[in-house]
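Hi everyone,

Forwarding the result from last night's run.
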Amino acid sequence: MHTSLDGFVTDKNGGMEWIKVDDQMFDYTGKLTDDADAALYGRNTYGMMEAYWPTAAETPNPSKHTLDHSRWYNKVPKIVLSRTMKNPKPGVQVVNDDLAAEIQKIKAKPGKNIVIFGSPSAGHSLTQLNLIDDYWLFVNPVLLGGGIPMFKNIPDQTKLKLVESKVFDSGVIAMHYTVER
């Protein structure tokens, strides 16, 4: 999840134009998708992803990242947290009831990691239920002064262990934390 230094994932108007991404970061984050065989989204983020990634590789002169991520997106199952989404496409599982139990069932299945991109409301819900095992934060060198916060309504103290950090040429700092259980 991209965040500002002051802990927001969008600016005051819901914008994300302040997020810095480049080929160096795409190469680094490619390991997230290499180690994942499912994607989890909130309904809004899923809609944005679905509008772009299925055909992104077919655009003129796609980048390596676009080719790689489009291929990955098209082959992995998607999990969408939504109380309103009906009739999902094949390969899309909608979780709308008993979030804790449903996500625990999905996590118990054999396979690789489940990765969540964006989706701050879904992230808030999963964090509140202690369902996230690892946090990958990309702290951008900007102070926003408001917007959607990265963390919200955390029920209890959650101890984290730093696994890895990396500073990119853009000034973005990637931090990978695992939840201590």
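Helices lie at 23-34, 43-52, 64-75, 99-108, 120-128.

Cheers,
N.
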